Amino acid sequence: MAATGSTLLPDIYLIELEGIPTLLMHGDLLCTDDKEYQQARIMLRSDAFAQDFLSKTIKDRKAIAADYRQRSGEATSLKADGIMDVNHQTVITVMQQNGALRLIHGHTHRPDFHNFDLDGKTAQRIVLSEWHTHYGAALQATKAGIISRPIELTT
User: Fold this and answer.
1) For residues 91 and 108, is the Cβ–Cβ distance under 8 A?
2) Which CATH number does 12-32+87-152 carry?
3) Predicted TM-score of the model (pTM)
């Protein structure tokens, strides 16, 4: 974080964007139908896991992370798409609890702009795309609204 000048945000972070209360989230908390992932998330974020993991060498940590990514990818490939996407009722509940009319998240990597009704008002859920080695995408807030634009990454 220090090297990039970034700030780590909490899991749910409310901002005002162009006059609209907007939630920023990673998005994994919205995938409540994926019970296996939610259980793994709790374990991976526990203090006990962090202490054990950080007590290992960098080499061991990289090996563990690579193994987890491989097993996660295999498990993901066997799951139905609907299980790995957000649960719409969870989206509504989180937005209502936080007084938001817009939600921006990633995790599912199915980029799109979803408009829907929330308590009689137009609400929006924006899904960010995933990043690759040489390209990605960024959201840009303009007077005309929010747009997604491609970014070419250079190494």
Assistant:
1) no
2) 3.60.21.10
3) 0.81
